[in-house]
Amino acid sequence: MTALHRLTANRAAVCAFAIVFLVTALAFLGPLCNPNDIETLDWAHVAAAPGRIGAHWFGTDRLGRDLYARTLEGIRVSLAVGLVASAISLVVGIAYGAVAGYLGGRADQFMMRFIEVLSGLPLIFFIIFLTVVFGRSPYLLFLAIGAVGWLTMARIVRGQTLSIRQREFIEAAVASGAGPARIIVRHVVPNLLGPVIVYATLTVPQIILFESFLSFLGLGVQEPHASLGTLIAEGAGEMESAPWILLVPGGFLACLLLCLNILGDGLRDALDVGGEI
Amino acid sequence: MTILAIDDLRVHFDRRRTRLHAVRGVSLEVAAAECVGIVGESGSGKTQMFMAAMGLLAPGAEAAGSVRFEGTELLGAKAAALNRVRGSRLAMVFQDPMTSLTPHLTVGSQLSEVLVTHAGVSWPSAESGALRMLERVRVPEARRRLRQYPHELSGGLRQRVMIGMALLCDPALLIADEPTTALDVTVQSQVMDLLRSMRREIGMAVVLISHDLGVVAGLADRIVVMYAGRIVESGTAGDILERALHPYTAALLQCVPNLHGPRLHRMPSLPGQPPDPGTDAPGCAFAPRCAHVTQRCKAERPSLQIGPSAHAVACHYPLPA
Fold it and tell me: B79 to chain A: which residues are within 8 Å by CB?
């Protein structure tokens, strides 16, 4: 049975994938069927509950902004941060980990100590520092989170590379005169993809959660733009009077995280790398 | 003309407390277009000797001495210099074809990679070179095999692919490390036939490493018998197979099953174990297992004495030829 068969036989993973797909489609296509934008203030309907006012499907927040439009924007931003930051950590982590693992010896020791030093730095301080120096921008957020996310990826990749390096086909490739760069790119990295894909899938929700946490603290996306985290932060203030301002973005966040995690677990089982992560 | 000259090669592994000696001072020359069989049990150092030559020693291993290939010193050479030789002039076929091919690359792309690396050709023309080579090593339906992955091929086919990969750049020397050990007996003889005919076709020298004298006998011009990291006897195939001088060689020969001889109830075997690679006793390494051992054997190590017709033996009391 191929990995794809095993994945499609996993009903929970298929459902999770469908939900992630639907939410993503909603986030990108949803604005087409609702005229509200994210910043227009509707003073006539401040903090309106969902369904009360025809035009505001998810209600409005305490400034009268349409919650439907803002939530979809929040999902788009959160997904983008999750995907871009994961991609950065994926690329950097694979390159760094594969080189460290393949070279081994002193180079490996040095590269891994460097990672340990970096992971010892307090992440929040690092990001506050960056926002103070460079100002708040979504690109900075991508970079800052990606810059931290690659550490674990590099460790996983290095560990896998160490075991692949012992395999005979690597010895055969060396014997055929291939240089280290070609061996890493052609013979080592493709063999890492199983565990790496699984880890990356599980990184996306972590990063979304982390971005929400940063936004909740006010370090993330800036008004009037919204991420799920800023929306939740806003909603938390109105929890008693207008709970939907919290529940709508919170529900989407919880649902996305759950589904991405289930999907990651499903991929791990399907690609049979259970013992390795 | 000598193409490979190994001079006093020593390979040892440093463990936490002990030093394990895999090769203890071996000198060996291989002439162009010659086939040399290297025979010995597991741990006799036959493989490590050529791993050192290829720069493939495991981390922690150290080699001393000299290995010159076509006039270039290989020991301690930079990886870039080794890579110009490895896979082009000096090629190696490994024991286990099941694990020596990269699983996620097609056969064609692995063969092409060698040509791209060494011959500097483009990928498309490398692919046609790969196809021609698969046909030369008699892989049936070569065009289809090119697109297949290693797991879709049988063991014998994979070893043909490995041999083809080694021969892509017309090497001057092919090192075949137990090329048939992992294969069925019927496939073994096909692979040996292939090696024999490719050797004739290309005119390369072959070093055939095996623990099986029977395998070596069919192909080798010269046979070198190793024991515990040293050469104990070397000579022409005829010398070794018919006029063995060393008791170890004689014992090995007795272990080759013979279809035409009398039926035996037990396969003959050599009692005892080879010496611990961590120790370095003064006498002959084979003394504890030798039927003709004397006090002198335990005290004094015999050196390799070259007799008439280059038949050399390291024994104080060689058997009557």
Answer: 179-180
DSSP B282-307: SS-TTGGG-TT--HHHHHSPPP-EE-
Instruction: Write down all domains in chain A, each with its CATH number in brackets.
Output: 3-276 (1.10.3720.10)
| 3-state SS assignment for residue B95 | coil
How close, in Å, is residue A100 to chain B by CA atoms?
Answer: 15
% of chain B residues with pLDDT over 70? 99
Q: With an 8 Å Cβ cutoff, are B87 and A171 in contact?
A: no
Which among A171, A178, A191 has CB closest to B117? A178
Compute the nearest-CA separation of B222 from chain A (Å): 25
The band of A274, judged by pLDDT with boundaries at 50, 70 and 90, is very low
User: Are residues B223 and B235 in contact, defined by beta-carbon separation less than 8 angstroms?
Assistant: yes
Query: Residue B234 and residue B82: Cα distance in Å, rounded?
Result: 29
Contact A187 B102 (CB under 8 A): yes
Q: Measured between alpha carbons, how far apart are the two ends of chain B, in Å?
A: 29
B105 contact residues in A (CB cutoff 8 A): 186-187, 190
pLDDT at A275: 44
Asked whether A191 and B104 are in contact (CB, 8 A), the reply is yes
Residue A137: both structure tokens together = 């921008």
H helices present in chain B, as ranges? 46-54, 79-85, 107-119, 123-136, 142-146, 155-167, 185-202, 213-217, 237-242, 247-254, 295-299
B203/B200 Cα distance (integer angstroms): 5
Q: Is the full-model pTM beyond 0.80?
A: no
CA angle at residue B189 from B168 to B233, to 5 degrees?
A: 90
Q: Which residue of B has its CA nearest to A176?
A: B87
Nearest residue of B to residue A172, measured between CA atoms: B100
Instruction: For the beta carbon of residue A162, count every other beta carbon within 10 angstroms.
Output: 15
Residue B121: strand, helix, or coil: coil
- Residue range A65-81: average pLDDT? 81
Q: What is the mean pLDDT of residues B89-96?
A: 89
Query: Which residues in chain B have Cβ-Cβ distances shorter than 8 Å to A172?
Result: 92, 94, 100-102, 162
Closest residue of chain A to B94, computed from CA coordinates: A172
Which residue from A4, A57, A5, A62 is spatially nearest to A34, judged by alpha carbons? Answer: A57
Nearest CB neighbour to B104, from listed A173, A179, A191: A191
> Minimal CA–CA distance to B235: which of B303, B307, B175?
B307
Chains A, B: CB pairs < 8 Å: 71
Cβ–Cβ below 8 Å for A174 and B99: no
